[in-house]
Design goal:
With 79 residues, the chain is α+β, with helices and mostly antiparallel strands. The protein is 39% helix and 19% strand. Strands 2-1-3 form a three-stranded antiparallel sheet. This is DUF5678 domain-containing protein.
Length: 79
Amino acid sequence: MDALLEKEFNYYLTHKKDILKQYRNKYIVVTDDKVVGAYDSPGDALYFASKSYPLGTFLVHHAVDEEKVQKFHSRIYAD
């Protein structure tokens, strides 16, 4: 994870139980050790957050009980 967003992600993990009570299934925006917005889609969360905060200073995260891990593979091979 990018060191710039590590603080925001750790805030989410630390406060996940309370966040889920209030924002379950929403896409939340976290910055400055607080949730500053909750939206129905990741696009809305990014759009509205980027109007108020510089890119790279906030985290958009889906507030769900169980998180799915996604892996991406590339076809680039190193010799």
